[in-house]
Amino acid sequence: MDGSCLCRGIKLRIDAKPEALHVCHCIDCRQFTGAIAAFLLPVPRDKMTVTGYPSGYANTSDGGVTVKRFFCGNCGSSLYDVGGQEPNMYYVQAGLFPPRTLPAPGKEIFLRSAEAWTIRYPGCKVSQTEVKQLVDP
């Protein structure tokens, strides 16, 4: 799968198509993306190539987890996150890839921060907080 930021200055190539999207409603993801949820592709770090020079910003969540979030310094597109509970994974913004190339959501997390009017994605494991507390709907 090939994707890029808006200005195409940073390109991403994923060598193995992810099985499912993660939908995250946490406040940090909301602020990073400017949307009410982040749609993230979990990708092992050895399965993705980044071309270009992303900028990064690290912050520590309310739960004490540090995540570094990368973005394009030119156009501002949100790109991917690293760190947190799975430091060997990239969590890549799904909107960087062409339409109809993405898998369906499989996990939905931080529902406690979701807007009351949003619908749940069918078949997702869900959690009010973080990934390690997932349950079937």
TrEMBL record:
The keyword Nuclease does not apply. InterPro entries: CENP-V/GFA (IPR006913), Mss4-like_sf (IPR011057). Residues 1-118 form the CENP-V/GFA domain. GO terms for molecular function: carbon-sulfur lyase activity; metal ion binding. Keywords: Lyase, Metal-binding, Zinc. PROSITE patterns: CENP_V_GFA. The keyword Lyase applies. Belongs to the Gfa family. This is CENP-V/GFA domain-containing protein. The lineage of its organism: Eukaryota, Fungi, Dikarya, Basidiomycota, Agaricomycotina.
